[in-house]
Amino acid sequence: MDRLSELSKATGSKYYEKEFGVTVRDLRVLRLVALEPGLTLSRLIELSLLEKTLVSKIVSALVKQGFLYRQIGELDARQINLFLSPEGKSMVKRTYERGNTLEETFLATLTESELKTFNRCIDKLTDALERHAKSAGSAKPRRAA
Known about the structure:
It contains six helices and three strands. The protein is mainly α. It has one domain (2-137): Winged helix-like DNA-binding domain superfamily/Winged helix DNA-binding domain (Arc Repressor Mutant, subunit A, Orthogonal Bundle). It has a three-stranded antiparallel β-sheet with strand order 1-3-2. Strand 2 (68-72) and strand 3 (80-84) form a beta hairpin. The longest helix is centred in the C-terminal third of the chain and has 27 residues, at 112-138. The model is unreliable at 139-145 (pLDDT under 50).
């Protein structure tokens, strides 16, 4: 799984950088902001599973490129909310469309039966990982004796 994941990320990143001028990590941030307009930096860090300093750098670069903008929170002026600019919305739309085409091309390698099995396995593994993450998050830390 690691090999496939790393290869697909590296290939995808090269592709998106060449065609759109953004990395896969940039897209992850843009897509998360698209899904939750107005999210805070701390929420973005939580959702993206990336390090705080990396997320801050990515956000700053995307603001500079004109894909994102920051807005002071209405309820709390200490809070900064993130939104997609019109250019950011366009980028997300175009990359989703292109990503779907790339995924279809990649998955065309599998027969219909293999694809059904693959999807069942992915769903099963995802469910198991989500259950594990929930139980790990709710487990109380044990004290040292």
